[in-house]
Structure prediction request, 199 residues.
Amino acid sequence: MDIFQLVGLDKPDISVLSDEFLAEVRDLPQKNVAVELLRKLIDDQIRATLRKNVVQSRKLSEMLEKSVHEYENRSVETAIIIEELIRTAQEVREAVGRGEKLGLSEAEVAFYDALAENESARQVMADEDLRKIASELVVKIRENVTIDWSLKESVRARMRAQIKRILRKYHYPPDRREEATNLVLMQAEQICRMVSGEA
Prediction:
C-alpha cells in the first residue's frame, strides 16, 4: 500500500525532504501516520545518501532512534515527536549538502567527519589540516583499492598501513588515542567498499 497516496500526498523525492513537504507532513491530521512516514523517509535518506559517512550516518541514526523510542514509549506527545523528526530530516538534508559548502567531495567529507570526531584534533589541528588529510586519504584509497580488496587480507593490511602512514605524517590524532585512528580506518573501509562497488 502506498502510504503517500493513502494520506493524500505526492510521493516526494527523498533526496530533498523539502521544507514544503515537511510542512505538509506536519499538518497531516493522522499524526501517527505522519510519525511513521517521517521515520521511514529519514531512515531511507540516511541509508541512501549518508552510507559512505560513518560518523554522520551513526549520529543521525541515533537521533532518529531516540525519537522513535520516545514515540513508542509514549513518553512525549506525538506533535513533539513530529517536530523532532522534522528537525532530524533537516539535519539529514544539511549533512547531504555539506560537501559543497566545504568544497569537499562526498568521500572527503566522510573522512573529514571521522577526523574531526576526535576532540583534541578539533582543538589542536587547523581545519585546513583536517581537509588536507581527508583529501590525501581519498586519493590514496582510489589509487590502491582493487575489486578484490576485501578478499585478500594482504591488500587490506597494506591499505591500513598506508592510511596509518598518512595519519602519522600529520601527527593525527594529537592525543594518540587509538579509537580515533580506528574510526578513520573504519571510514576507509566503508569508502573502499563504495569505490570497489561492494556497497
About this structure: The CA atoms of residues 178 and 184 lie 10 Å apart.
